[in-house]
Amino acid sequence: MRIAAEAAADKLADDILAYDVSEQLVITDAFLLCSATNDRQVRAIVDEIEDRLRIEADAKPVRREGEREGRWVLLDYVDIVVHVQHEEDRTFYALERLWKDCPSISLPDSVTQVAAQRARPTGVEDAS
């Protein structure tokens, strides 16, 4: 999960969240959700996640869906399923609402710090 989340953050994915769905589903233990502003970025995030998991964890997805359209790509690694969505599709399908009763999984500081830095308005300096 950590490797996939960090890979997504490195490619500037938005709203990276993880849920423990093991009590609700028998097909996987966790979902990693993230979004991108355009189709090209969706593909770049997917490629980075696949590359990093292959290199660092010797893992390959057993199933991959949605790549042709580039709007919502699903990477199934059995224990985790990664959803990389175009931000419009993420808003429309709202997977967070569907899985809101599942416990969230904490992500590494390296992932959450990147998101916080990107959310900070430009030109605003840290007061510390």
Automatic annotation (TrEMBL):
**GO process terms (BP):** cytosolic ribosome assembly; negative regulation of ribosome biogenesis; negative regulation of translation
- Molecular function (GO) terms listed? ribosomal large subunit binding
The UniProt entry lists the main location of this chain as: cytoplasm
Among Pfam families, the record links this protein to: RsfS (PF02410)
Keyword terms of this UniProt record: Cytoplasm, Repressor, Translation regulation
Record-level GO cellular component terms? cytoplasm
Lineage: superkingdom? Bacteria
Is the keyword Transferase assigned to this protein? Answer: no
Q: Which InterPro entries match?
A: Iojap/RsfS/C7orf30, NT_sf
Q: Does the keyword tRNA-binding apply?
A: no
Localisation per UniProt entry: Cytoplasm
The record describes its quaternary structure and partners as: Interacts with ribosomal protein uL14 (rplN).
Q: What does this protein do?
A: Functions as a ribosomal silencing factor. Interacts with ribosomal protein uL14 (rplN), blocking formation of intersubunit bridge B8. Prevents association of the 30S and 50S ribosomal subunits and the formation of functional ribosomes, thus repressing translation.
The family note in this entry says: Belongs to the Iojap/RsfS family.
What name does this protein carry? Answer: Ribosomal silencing factor RsfS
To which species is this protein native?
A: Planobispora takensis
Please spell out the taxonomic lineage of the organism that makes this protein: Bacteria, Bacillati, Actinomycetota, Actinomycetes, Streptosporangiales
